[in-house]
Amino acid sequence: MAKALLDRLSELKKEKKAVILAHNYQIGEVQDAADYVGDSFELSKIAADTKAEVIVFCGVHFMAESAKILAPEKTVILPENMAGCPLADMALPEKVREKKEEFPDAAVACYINTSAAVKAECDVCVTSANAVKIIDSYPAKEFLFVPDQNLAHFISTNVDKKIIPWEGYCITHHRVTREEVKRARKAIPDTVLMVHPECKPEVVEQADEVLGTGGMLKYAKESQDSKFIIGTELGLIYRLKKESPEKDFYLLSADMICPNMKLTNLQKVINSLESMTPEIEIPEDIRVKAKVCLDRMLEYS
Ligand code: 13P
To answer: What are the strands of the beta sheet with 227-231, ordered from one edge?
Structure first.
């Protein structure tokens, strides 16, 4: 069954000149079938540079949109139309415009977890892999940061600049509490605790390392340690185990599952390539403005 699906996928990829990109949170069979698996930043760079004619983005909507913003001449397909990001939905472009009026001297930085319409309102985009570096080097002293309040807080503790946070959060990361960290540390002693900067400050403060998903993979591979508690979405554990099979990885909280990231499977990837739907489309005026903000991210990273 799996072999038949993989053979069909390989036929379709050749026929359509397609590349399959998968985020680190995707289920195992999708990660295994993808040409590239990565974090938001790595995948946006691959989308910008690929020679393929079709990008099948196995992730959530804002990720596929970012690929389309950067590579407008390509057909970008999101195999599961319902795969959204509640965090990205917490910022609407009209609300961002209102906030900009309130803080006219602030530059506007957005997390990549935003819609194209919100990116079009912002000066520079960041991901968890480059947020501190970009905010530190971007020529402004004050930033309105949209939409993740926890990442905004993490940045503010690492740069000497004023960060005005938006009140959004990632449901999957924000629900983890200080008490859960204490319980996990007690249950699995002598481990390295790595958490994503989308976790609350009370969780981040107790971590040994605060990293995006790509940073966690690199750290685990290079570390002399052999046991890690992972404070991010479940899907990353699959890749961590695959790349460092001799090490042990424990999910910080059993609730750290993003239902949207679990909507895509191999059959849906095949269906989407057969029908070439659902295709990502962005009005050109919005795409052009949003591209400025993503291009600046690539420039400052
Ligand atoms: P990364 O860029 O660290 O992969 O994170 C993406 C994301 O959406 C986290 O919830």
So the answer is: 209-210, 192-195, 227-231, 248-251
